[in-house]
Amino acid sequence: MYVKGSNIKASREVNSRLASLLLTRMLPLLSNGSGSESSADVRTSKVRAHWILLLMKILQPGLQTAPQKPALCPLLITTSQTACSCETLVSSLVREQNRGTVEAMVRRQRPRRLACLALMAVLLADLLALSDTLAVMSVDLGSESMKVAIVKPGVPMEIVLNKESRRKTPVTVTLKENERFFGDSAASMAIKNPKATLRYFQHLLGKQENNPHVALYRARFPEHELGFDPQRQTVYFQISPQLQFSPEEVLSMLLNYSRSLAEDFAEQPIKDAVITVPAFFNQAERRAVLQAARMAGLKVLQLINDNTATALSYGVFRRKDINTTAQNIMFYDMGSGSTVCTIVTYQTVKTKDAGLQPQLQIRGVGFDRTLGGLEMELRLREHLAGLFNEQRKGQGTKDVRENPRAMAKLLREANRLKTVLSANADHMAQIEGLMDDVDFKAKVTRAEFEELCADLFERVPRPVQQALQSAQMNLDEIEQVILVGGATRVPKVQEVLLKAVGKEELGKNINADEAAAMGAVYQAAALSKAFKVKPFVVRDAVIYPILVEFTREVEEEPGVRSLKHNKRVLFSRMGPYPQRKVITFNRYSHDFNFHINYGDLGFLGPEDLRVFGSQNLTTVKLKGVGESFKKYPDYESKGIKAHFNLDESGVLSLDRVESVFETLVEDSPEEESTLTKLGNTISSLFGGGSTPDTKENGTDTVQEEEEGPAEGSKDEPGEQAELKEEAEARAEDTSPPPPSEPKGDAAPEGEKATEKDSGEKPEAQKPSEKGEVGSEGVPPAPEEGKKQKPARKQKMVEEIGVELVVLDLPDLPEDELAHSAQKLQDLTLRDLEKQEREKAANSLEAFIFETQDKLYQSEYQEVSTEEQREDISGRLSATSTWLEDEGFGATTVMLKEKLAELKKLCQGLFFRVEERKKWPERLSALDNLLNHSSMFLKGARLIPEMDQIFTEVEMTTLEKVINETWAWKNATVAEQAKLPATEKPVLLSKDIEAKMMALDREVQYLLNKAKFAKPRPRPKDKNGTRAEPPLNASTSDQGEKVIPPPGQTEDAKPVSEPEKETRSESADSEPLELGGPGAESEQKEQPTGQKRTLKNDEL
């Protein structure tokens, strides 16, 4: 920011002027102008104060070298030593500015610097506006509870506490006609109103009505009425005839609530978030979460798999333990709704930008969608319901399972019972008033619980086997098995898992509840532009392979044409992502269609395939292929290139489809430059589909005419290995990946050569443009060089129209998405209005009770008459009666008006009491300041004239302020003593503070002037002798003699101006680092009359 050059004197002058001018220009931006702030602007005040402190730190070197140092240094000392508020700091700046020192400097600035300084002021002003949106958040969406974490300046990776000061919040929403409840409030409403309380609704995301999970949800929670959406073939919650919400809308409400918790905790607005999703979520489920976040107004930086977030959290906090040796760690995560087993490899890799950095790679994943703590609780609930029915058998009562409230109570007790049985052999389950005011009490042992869930415990090893199979590893290669998730605390789960993995013990050295949230928020900080974190390379893996299918005509025999179905693997199973791929169709010259589907899902069982849903993703219809061929009839077609992208969230998208053509163009001196620029411009605008771009994006080219083996054949592992190499090269930014190899049968040699030539076009093009020497090293003659130039390849790209037909689950149309977002926003505004009204009513009621109590306190009775207290008491009683009778229907505005009237009525009484409380402390502080100021003035006047650093005007001004303050204090105290206590006081605390500030300003000015003043030069003795030099003075210094100019004797007094020039010259010889306070102290210690010649090696 500062100007640095060889001329140190000029550099310091520019720095000091820059510092002064920035102070002047930034005052209007950093101050409020009102002198006071409301409670709602406290956060903005803190931000202003932060930027003022930052500005002072930036300008400190310039201020230290500025000529107005005595005037500006008090400001620096105040800023660094006191935690003053924004208003105090701004007022201090204004007072220093009024002295004229800064304004005088501004008037001497050169006009050419104003543009740079104005730009700097605008940038700082933008930083003030952006500083309120620096925080990012993460949301770990579990089936039963969620955890929210934030990162903001000064608060690295912190779990957000909810309104009940808990670190995790139930994923529960209660929807009623006029109000909504979230978290713990909604969980408590589950017993009172189970139909309106929605839980475990994430299991319905991205599911059509015929999905087995929808039927399972109906069986688990029969109190919920699920409607059918014929347009999307999905279900929605029918709360009442007027209230119906889709699972995406309910999730959007919960995300909005989580953002409100994060904003309250961070004290600033937040829009950027990273959301965790289960690793087994398919494309439809991931898109549903993104739509819910869009409804909530959140900017999703990434959908991160919860197992990847857990692995990232584990690696971040153990960065020092990761080295070049690969470490294989297994994470077994059993939560409330599902179980996921993940094998992760940690090791350090060499990256191009950051050097050697740690990396985690997902090697294998296994899962069970329904194995979790919820199923265990449902088994316990069913057992408790049977016990309660047996206790009431023969009494003619109905089944407890038909009572939704009773079943909600039993589910809550089953949750508690499962937790207690994890640490105890037996426990007594008891519920008061379970049904029909009948209490329930029964003893349950751990053995009974394990017998109820015996089939569930048998499924515990299956995810481990799936993960090992997908990673192609065995248990001997696994170094440690770490438990994650709440359900892993069940002893039987740990026993079965330990036996399955064959280890001595299971790792429990990670926070099972918060690891995913912490890893996700670290990724959020890494993706945000507002933070800089230590790099940690993350390579996630594709769970479900994706392929492209298309049909084309082939001529097997002369005159006989038939249709052939082709499959090309786009993203293989366990391949890394994010990743981009390009597929080329070479045999099409007219409009055609191709399909994007899931690949081989043989690793899923029959039931998992039914839950998975549709295996067909999208049908792509291309329009404009034939027109592109007609547009370039003389060009050679290089195929139709489709660009695919599997982004960081694991969501597949088709970026664009292009028709690429190529022709040979003879270069001429006149047209070479123009054609080259035109071709390069078009290629850069449309991506070009060239081989360098393809390699950079980690893509692979598959030629359409190749008849490769079907998906899942022996060639697929080779392609999988190649994709991993490409993703690794892109993640590590090392050498470019090898050129892509086509899949399937080999293409003709001529076609391969053409494709290779097109890929090498940029490299072959540059020598011909620049006219470089040939391979022989001999430059050709000018005429011969033109004749021998090879023909250059020119590429043309034509955009192809694309129509997508979604086959798995249609997304919400834009109008319905906007309608849902507006509906949720209206509900949020209604909730805010309700909260504001409740806050106003509580404030009014609290003010009435507090004031009625204060009227009987002695300190209030001393400053008020009996009539005043009776008047206030009557108004308070009337308002309290109105609040009880009509307050229920009162609006927020009416409640605030009532509160304002009562505060105005009691304002005088409260003011008198507060002033009397402040008098002793303020008057004592004023007396101390006056005494100290008088002592300081007396000491300043005793300084000898030769060493005096204060002027007579300055000391006279201080004496005048001291006398005026004494006189004001004595007169005001005497006048106040004559007034009765019930009258408005004339001795005000704010006046005392103003007098103290005025006196303290004058004293601080003189103190800082003394601190930074330099001693005056001593005049020579009248006898012509000089003072003896110090003993440590060098011989050259003692022998040095100054020859006076003609007409001047040695006794003459030295002229001050040459001394300034000498000091300036010595300053020019100093390094820039010596221009601070340390250099000035060294100059003060050296006598003025002694000078030392600086050598060249000392500069």
Automatic annotation (TrEMBL):
Has a pivotal role in cytoprotective cellular mechanisms triggered by oxygen deprivation. Promotes HSPA5/BiP-mediated ATP nucleotide exchange and thereby activates the unfolded protein response (UPR) pathway in the presence of endoplasmic reticulum stress. May play a role as a molecular chaperone and participate in protein folding. One of its GO terms (biological process) is negative regulation of hypoxia-induced intrinsic apoptotic signaling pathway. Belongs to the heat shock protein 70 family. The gene is HYOU1. Residues 665-794, 1010-1099 are annotated as: Disordered. The chain crosses the membrane at residues 114-137. Residues 675-684 have a biased composition (Polar residues). This is Hypoxia up-regulated protein 1. Part of a large chaperone multiprotein complex comprising DNAJB11, HSP90B1, HSPA5, HYOU, PDIA2, PDIA4, PDIA6, PPIB, SDF2L1, UGGT1 and very small amounts of ERP29, but not, or at very low levels, CALR nor CANX. The keyword Hydrolase does not apply. Residues 712-733, 742-773, 1050-1066 have a biased composition (Basic and acidic residues). One of its GO terms (cellular component) is endoplasmic reticulum lumen. It comes from Camelus ferus. GO terms for molecular function: ATP binding; ATP-dependent protein folding chaperone. It is found in: Endoplasmic reticulum lumen. InterPro entries: ATPase_NBD, Heat_shock_70_CS, HSP70_C_sf, HSP70_peptide-bd_sf, Hsp_70_fam. Keywords: ATP-binding, Chaperone, Endoplasmic reticulum, Membrane, Nucleotide-binding, Signal, Transmembrane, Transmembrane helix.
